Structure formats: structure tokens, C-alpha cells
């Protein structure tokens, strides 16, 4: 599993941007560990968003 294969990695990420657990993905312990490392590396490289439902600054209330 490669961190550059975004289509494959997005199958293991929830709508909230969280990595799905083993009981949902059906991966073995070793496969889950490799996938988790690839997802984290892709996030650091900017290939995958940390949160898929990013709303920007519109959700922050400012006291003026």
C-alpha cells in the first residue's frame, strides 16, 4: 500500500476524515498498521485532507 494511491486510501477513511477501525475495514493487524501509516503520510504530504468536512472560518464566532 502506497501513500500516493489516494483512491485506495480514501476507502479506509470515514466521512469525518477518520481512519476506519479494523472491524470495519476487515484488514489484518499488519495490513491495518501499513494502511494507517500510509494515510498519515499522505496527510502530511498534503495529498489527503485531515478533515473532509472542512467549513473554514465561517463556523468560528467572533466577539466584536
TrEMBL record:
Entry's Gene3D superfamilies?
A: Ribosomal protein S18
The UniProt entry, under Pfam families, shows: Ribosomal_S18
Q: Which UniProt keywords apply?
A: Chloroplast, Plastid, Ribonucleoprotein, Ribosomal protein, RNA-binding, rRNA-binding
For the biological process aspect of GO, one term held by this record is:
translation
Taxonomically, the superkingdom here is Eukaryota
What is the annotated localization of this protein? Answer: Plastid, Chloroplast
Q: List, in alphabetical order, the Gene Ontology terms for molecular function in this entry.
A: small ribosomal subunit rRNA binding; structural constituent of ribosome
Transmembrane residue ranges: none
Gene Ontology cellular component? Answer: chloroplast; mitochondrial small ribosomal subunit
The principal localisation class reads: plastid
The record ties this protein, via SUPFAM superfamilies, to: Ribosomal protein S18 (SSF46911)
Q: Which HAMAP family match?
A: Ribosomal_bS18
Q: Which NCBIfam families match?
A: S18
Oligomer status and interactors:
Part of the 30S ribosomal subunit.
Q: Which family does it belong to?
A: Belongs to the bacterial ribosomal protein bS18 family.
Name of this protein: Small ribosomal subunit protein bS18c
Amino acid at each position: 500500500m502506497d501513500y500516493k494511491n489516494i483512491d485506495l486510501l480514501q476507502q479506509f477513511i470515514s466521512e469525518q476524515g477518520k481512519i476506519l477501525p479494523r472491524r470495519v475495514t476487515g484488514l489484518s493487524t499488519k495490513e491495518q498498521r501499513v494502511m494507517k501509516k500510509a494515510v498519515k503520510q499522505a496527510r502530511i504530504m498534503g495529498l489527503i485532507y485531515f478533515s473532509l468536512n472542512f467549513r473554514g472560518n465561517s463556523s468560528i464566532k467572533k466577539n466584536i
